Amino acid sequence: MQNQLKDKALVLHSIRWKESSKILTLFIRSKGVDKVIARSAYKPNHPFGGRLEALNLLEVVISQKQSRSLQILQEAEVLDGFPVLRKDLTRQPYALAILELIKQTLGEQHSDQIFFDFTVHIIKNLATADHPEILFIYYLLKLSSFLGFKPALHNCWECGKTDLQGTSYFSVEKGAIFCSGCGEGLELLSALHKDQLYFLQRLQTFPHKKIVDFPIPLPAGINYIALLTRFLGFHLEQPIHINALSLL
Ligand SMILES: [Zn+2]
């Protein structure tokens, strides 16, 4: 059985394949992450020319056959190439980092149209947000929740206390907070001051439509991205490497 799928897709990655073709890793709105082949993409004057770059949001037509391991890209129109974001070297790395995260954490089983639309919304807003880094930390928190590892940040995992004063501890292993009394002697803990914890608590529950107006500045002192990436990697049982942010 052969069928055609017409849908939106983000290009996560592309590599040259043989003489003139490309293999693309796509995040497809109704299908999750999947690879397709774009035949003849490198031939001069082919309609694919220039459209299949990483980060482009496309409308694609894919010819699908169950017996094939690699489906075939038939048509691709660019819906958004994010030109402003692409040119801004203080913002573009965060968009590329989102692509790297998706590629390493999602698969075909993760087809979720709401999460796809959320991802596109965050990438769009990276172009104008005052603090693109905060949007990326927000994305890490939401991706963790989407994958089933929502960090429990609002009360001590051990004693249940919600009024967390002074220093608390985030346990990568438990995905939860321990108060200053209960955190002693546990492994894999990262200390969080009250303002750092409050920042993460507010960010985790903030509505995504208003995220560019998030009111709290990033409290200095810890690397939130490294902490949340380590947390995700621990629970997925594979280390996550984000190379794009080294461009900053
Ligand atoms: Zn406690």
Describe the overall structure:
- This protein has helices at residues 83-87, 92-105, 113-126, 132-146, 194-205, 224-236; strands at residues 2-17, 21-28, 32-38, 57-65, 71-80, 152-156, 167-171, 176-178, 189-193.
- The chain has 248 residues and is an alpha+beta fold.
- The chain has 2 domains: 2-81, OB fold (Dihydrolipoamide Acetyltransferase, E2P) (Beta Barrel), CATH 2.40.50; 84-247, Recombination protein O, C-terminal domain (de novo design (two linked rop proteins)), CATH 1.20.1440.
- Strands 1-2-3-5-4 form a 5-stranded mixed beta barrel. It has a 4-stranded mixed β-sheet with strand order 6-8-7-9, covered by helices on one side.
- β2 and β3 (32-38) form a beta hairpin.
- α2 (92-105) packs parallel to α4 (132-146), α3 (113-126) runs antiparallel to α4 (132-146) and α4 packs parallel to α6 (224-236).
- It is elongated and about 65 Å long.
- The chain starts with a strand and ends in a 12-residue tail after the last helix.
- Zinc ion is lined by residues 156, 158-159, 161, 178-179, 181-182.
